[in-house]
Design goal:
With about 450 residues, this protein is an alpha+beta fold. It has 11 helices and 30 strands. Strands 20-21-22-29-24-27 form a 6-stranded antiparallel sheet. A 5-stranded mixed β-barrel has the order 8-11-9-10-12. Strands 26-25-28-23-30 form a 5-stranded antiparallel sheet. Helix 3 crosses helix 7 (about 205-210).
């Protein structure tokens, strides 16, 4: 069996901690068994590793999330979507990857699941049963549904055919998307299960569908033509059109931590970051990513979230409304990268120039490529730690208090000896993130370039 984890999200439902670059699955607000803070994706990857499925798993994600995935999980197998186009294109790309690059057998079972379910370890043990039920029934798709604990209107329901199946599985009659609570009671009485977004199929089944639709099945070709695929979910494009589907039940703990209300129910601490809660602030949680202290007095049933992107103060039951109030396409003010992180401190714009100020952390042993910027000048002030700067083939040792001006067009690279933090002021006609021309991608390449000219490295 091959597992494909889908990692996406626009970062609206848990604003201001989540944004386009840091969706909910990357927020380090859960407590592990060692009382350390971890993200949803770190928790899930640990569970997959615990049941021995990590070597069979690949993550499909957009290029916006590549750095933060590698930062939190290390060098795990990742399929990078050229752009966001919903779950059908993402799963088609994953199938092409398995088929044409990894030479996976067409009879191999492929299981698709979200990257962020909050579940027990046995959830992943149950996933392995999907392969058996596909082989046993010859169904085209096998789903896993969660046994409902209450008639909720938040989830979709998988409705089984009456008497079609046995204790291990059921044939699927239809799907009902987010019914009223009264309708949900009726569905549960019919044996309906919550749709948790987990399903499996034989690789040959999906490759056949792609061929029927004229979709390329060679990975590189599909990447080049990715923008031609319709933006549509796999549910709408495939599952709801397929009549031969079975479902197996999972009766353990499962929760979608997609809102502040549900997330705080599973947080190990009521205060994360710099802040104080008064004793009468019952069922209130504070998450503060800034150095400024936050004090909450006498406020019940609330979430207070503070980050470089903004501040949210909300009654918990009202917090899902945040997705309709977030300013669209707002620039992320905090990003986690493979080399460290940065936080935007200030931004200003005049008719002829932009100025962006960041605090940047470069982790010990990490480096930034040898590169230049065409449209901006950078001024960096080291505030913490030590490292090296190569600027136009000259080497400088960095220590706290050092200030360097890097003019537009000047090639430079940084390497941290210890965790190093510096303030960087970017100034020019444009301060776009993509204004970067790389000359050497690794520190070793850059050193060889310098040494070949007799310059000390």
């Amino acid at each position: 069996m091959k597992l494909v984890l889908l990692s996406g999200g626009s970062g609206k439902r848990l604003w201001p901690l989540s944004n386009d670059a840091r969706s909910k699955q990357f927020l380090k607000v859960l407590e592990n068994e060692n009382k350390e803070m971890e993200s949803m994706v770190q928790r899930v990857w640990g569970q997959i590793r615990a049941v021995g499925l990590d070597q069979s798993t690949v993550i499909a994600t957009g290029k916006q999330q590549l750095d933060i995935l590698q930062s939190q999980l290390g060098q795990v197998p990742i399929i990078v979507e050229p752009e966001r186009r919903d779950t059908f294109p993402a799963i088609a790309l994953a199938a092409a990857y398995l088929y044409s690059l990894k030479n996976v057998d067409l009879n191999e079972t492929v299981c698709i699941l979200p990257v962020d379910p909050y579940v027990e370890d046995r959830f992943f043990e149950r996933i392995q049963d999907l392969e058996g039920v596909l082989n046993r029934t010859d169904a085209k798709i096998a789903l896993m549904g969660v046994t409902p604990t209450l008639p909720s209107s938040k989830y979709g329901y998988i409705v089984p055919e009456q008497g079609a199946g046995d204790d291990a599985y059921s044939r699927v009659a239809r799907f009902t998307e987010k019914p009223s609570e009264e309708k949900a009671k009726s569905l549960i009485a019919q044996g309906a299960l919550w749709n948790c977004g987990v399903f499996a199929f034989k690789l040959g089944y999906l490759i056949g569908l792609l061929l029927e639709r004229g979709v390329p099945i060679q990975y590189e070709e599909l990447q080049k033509n990715y923008d031609k695929l319709a933006k549509i979910s796999f549910d709408y494009e495939v599952v709801e059109k397929e009549s031969d589907i079975v479902v197996i039940p999972y009766d353990g703990y499962w929760k979608d931590l997609g809102t502040w209300n549900t997330l705080t129910d599973n947080m190990g601490a009521r205060v994360i970051g710099n802040g104080i809660l008064s004793e009468d602030s019952a069922n209130t949680h504070l998450v503060n990513e800034l150095d400024i202290p936050v004090t909450i007095i006498g406020i019940q049933n609330a979430i207070v979230a503070v980050s470089p992107d903004g501040i949210l103060v909300s009654e918990k039951n009202a917090s899902p409304r945040i997705k309709d109030m977030v300013v669209p396409n707002q620039r992320p003010m905090y990003e986690e990268r493979t080399w460290g992180w940065y936080r935007v401190l200030d931004y200003s714009r005049s008719p002829d120039a932009e100025v962006l100020t960041k605090r940047i952390c470069l982790k010990a042993g990490k480096h930034l490529n040898y590169h230049c910027h065409a449209e901006r000048t950078d001024t960096m002030t080291v505030v913490l730690g030590e490292g090296e700067l190569v600027l136009n083939e000259e080497l400088y040792i960095l220590k706290p208090g050092d200030v360097f001006r890097i003019p537009a067009g000047s090639y430079h690279a940084l390497r941290a000896a210890t965790d190093m933090e510096f303030i960087e002021i970017q100034q020019g006609e444009s301060v776009k993130e993509d204004d970067e021309i790389d000359l050497y991608g690794t520190w070793e390449e850059m050193e060889f370039h310098c040494l070949s000219r007799g310059i000390p490295s």
